[in-house]
Design goal:
This protein is an alpha/beta fold. The protein has helices at residues 7-14, 97-108, 136-142, 154-164, 190-200, 230-250, 260-275; strands at 37-46, 60-64, 67-69, 73-78, 82-88, 116-122, 127-133, 173-179, 203-209, 254-257, 276-283, 293-300, 305-309, 312-314.
Length: 316
């Protein structure tokens, strides 16, 4: 398929980014500095999923390969963000596309004036609806015009989104995927996408729209042809678990939306989490040019909270 052409250059481009070392112009990253430091974006949520703000460096402990590292830099504030929006409009979303559109529209309404967004849609092949823009009103008018149909190239569309992130102007970069998690037409694999997401230093948030035969809204009659078969349910569950894994490994959050209330809560919590991130910095523990994977873990002493951060990085 012709659309693979934009995927191949991205592989060669991203392989030279490196998570430790000098940052390249035009490709800001929270996970890379010129001072031999590792900078880790961290989100803390309470038992309800609400973002916890106001914490200080003494509330955190960070480990690199199980060894506690001294925290040498710390920041926590609501900062402008560059956010990629991935909206699944493929045939598997025909019962829930209206709800998915509503989720994206509601998220855009939480934007700060300094934020920027791009919008991609998932179908038989990835489609760029809009490159990075701060014209939120134009995006809000565009989202309702999307229509459902085609096969599902979810992984390839997310891959394209990571490529678009090279043009982000803000160091705080995230991607929000609104989908049921199904994929039946991608050229790239799940493991390839996760690898690239970790190298790109983009936190992936996902709102998994579940089709409970009727979608999120009301007014859909339940008939036998709309009831999912066991094999379809198994595929759907695998897709949902994949999006959860992608979010967890990149330090983002994931939500399952089975009704309007859950959808509204997911939008609010995702917006808060993306814009209120702690950035913890520590010195590179050792000189390492092997490209090996370094496991990291971030902990907090605040009770009844959950810490979300990427689980490691590749040494350059």
């Amino acid at each position: 398929m012709a659309y693979r052409k934009w995927l191949v250059p991205f592989v060669s481009a991203i392989s030279g980014w490196g998570l430790i070392g000098a940052a390249e112009p035009g490709a800001p990253s929270l996970f890379r500095t010129t001072a031999g430091m590792v900078l880790v974006p961290v989100t803390v949520t309470d038992h309800t999923g609400k973002t916890v703000t106001g914490l200080q460096r003494e509330h955190f402990t960070i480990l690199d390969e199980h060894v506690v590292q001294p925290i040498v830099s710390f920041a926590g504030e609501d900062s402008p963000s560059s956010v990629g929006l991935v909206l699944d409009v493929s045939g598997s979303m025909r019962n829930t596309l209206g709800d998915a559109r509503t989720i994206v529209g509601a998220f855009l309404k939480t934007a700060n004036p300094q934020d920027e967004f791009f919008l991609l849609t998932v179908s038989t092949k990835p489609e760029t609806v809009s490159g990075f823009t701060s014209d939120v009103a134009a995006l809000e008018r565009t989202v309702p015009q999307t229509s459902s149909g085609g096969m599902t190239a979810l992984i390839d569309t997310a891959y394209l989104g990571l490529s678009q992130m090279r043009h982000a102007r803000s160091p705080r970069r995230a991607m929000l995927i609104v989908s049921d998690g199904l994929d039946n037409n991608s050229r790239y694999t799940k493991s390839e996408l996760i690898r690239v997401a970790l190298e790109a230093d983009v936190q992936v948030y996902s709102v998994i729209v579940r089709d409970g035969a009727t979608g999120l809204g009301e007014g859909f009659p339940v008939v036998s042809s709309m009831v999912a078969k066991p094999i379809d349910m198994a595929r759907q569950n695998r897709g949902q678990y994949f999006l959860e894994e992608l979010s967890e490994k990149t330090g983002g959050l994931h939500f399952r939306a089975g009704n309007a209330g859950e959808a509204q809560g997911a939008v609010r919590k995702a917006s808060e989490a993306i814009r209120n991130i702690y950035v913890i910095g520590y010195e590179v523990p050792e000189a390492d040019s092997s490209g090996k994977w370094h496991r990291i873990r971030v902990k907090t002493d605040v009770p009844h909270t959950t810490v979300s951060a990427r689980n490691g990085y590749y040494a350059r």
